[in-house]
Amino acid sequence: MEKLSVEAIISKIEAEETFHAVSNDYSFTLNIDKYVPYACAAVHDGHQFRKDLWDNCLHTEYDRWYEEDPETKNMVISHPILIAGCDSRFEYDLNRTPEEAVFETAWGKQLWKQPLPEPEKAKSLEKHTNFYKVVHALIAKLEEKFGVCIVYDMHSYNWQRWDREVPTWNLGTSNIDNNRFGEQVESWRQALASIELPHGIKQTAKINDTFQGNGYFLKFITNNFNNTLVLATEIAKVYCDEYQQINYPEVVAAVEQQLRVLLPKHASEFYNTFKN
Questions:
Q1: Domains along the chain with CATH numbers
Q2: Which InterPro entries does the record cross-reference, listed alphabetically (predicted)?
Q3: What is the pLDDT, as a whole number, of residue 151?
Q4: In this predicted structure, what is the pLDDT of residue 149?
Q5: What is the mean predicted confidence (pLDDT) over 96-122?
Q6: Beta carbons of 150 and 41 less than 8 angstroms apart
Q7: Span 31-56, mean pLDDT?
Q8: Which residues contact 201 (CB under 8 A, 6 or more apart)?
Q9: In terms of Cα–Cα distance, which of 35, 9, 41 is closest to 144?
Q10: What is the DSSP secondary-structure string of the chain?
């Protein structure tokens, strides 16, 4: 893996080079093993939280982990194009607009002892901006090369705090063109429902049951590109103990192994349907 500037990453994309890179501020990674008409993303995978902010932060390291999406990058690690955040959403949230990306309160609790100084806020927002420069270059290249593209936007959610039964997988589709892509949404839901998990973890997949797909990452791509479908795909955190901060690697591995087959198959069907 190379450490590269945003400009260098973009020029490699434009030249259709394959590479594994981390941005030179260590805020995100991008792996491109092959140019294909689909990409995977894990924008909330990151847990880094820059040290300048530690003393001023009221939330604990566990509080942050609880609201992040750990292991979502590992669930799609084998796919040819993968972009993932390295920083915690408590520093800046890649799935929110630039105006809302740096929190003042997080999940009902004040985040900072003292209001965040403007230079600190600017430093965080610059990372947000750079990430989206690369996302734009990547999707532009894939649409230029293939005509259409599909992005699997991987997230997870805390299921134990709901007071009703919630699905293992949730697809958020309220901001995509469902008239055009409805069949692909349903076939992806069915693919997710077919995944078998260890320990008898029940396996259900629903659409807009817990979340509706209102994230900025999906909206940014959908608003800037006419022929890219983003599937906001959330797994309930059945792959960890939310309250003890323990990951279950065998559950993550089971998801990864099955997505290794199901995801390219779904992407191929999407491409063959819409490539004209």
A1: 2-274 (3.40.630.40)
A2: N-FG_amidohydro
A3: 98
A4: 98
A5: 95
A6: no
A7: 98
A8: 168, 238, 251
A9: 35
A10: -EEE-HHHHHHHHHTT--EEEEETTSSEEEEESS--SEEEEETT---B--GGGTTTB-S-HHHHHHHS-TTHHHHTTTSSEEEEE-B-TTT--TTS-GGGSS-SEETTEE-BSSPPPHHHHHHHHHHHHHHHHHHHHHHHHHHHHHS-EEEEEEEEE--TT-SS---SEEEE-TTS-HHHHHHHHHHHHHHHHT---GGG----EEESSS-----HHHHHHHHH-SSEEEEEEEEESTTEETTTTEE-HHHHHHHHHHHHHHHHHHHHHHHHHH--
Give the predicted TM-score (pTM) of the model. Answer: 0.98
Q: What size, in residues, is the chain? A: 276
pLDDT in tens, 228-252: 999 999 999 999 999 999 999 999 9
pLDDT for the residue 265: 98
pLDDT of 271 reads 98
Hey, what amino acid is at 65? W
| Residues 121-142 pLDDT 10s | 999 999 999 999 999 999 999 9
Rounded CA-CA distance 150/39 in Å is 7
CA-to-CA separations, 246 to 70, 169, 243, 249, in angstroms, rounded: 11, 20, 8, 9
Which residue from 192, 242, 211, 225 is spatially nearest to 76, judged by alpha carbons? 192
Q: What whole-number distance in Å separates Cα of residue 191 and Cα of residue 175?
A: 21
Per-residue pLDDT at 161 exceeds 90: no
Q: Distances in Å between the alpha carbon of 135 and those of 7, 68, 200?
A: 12, 20, 38
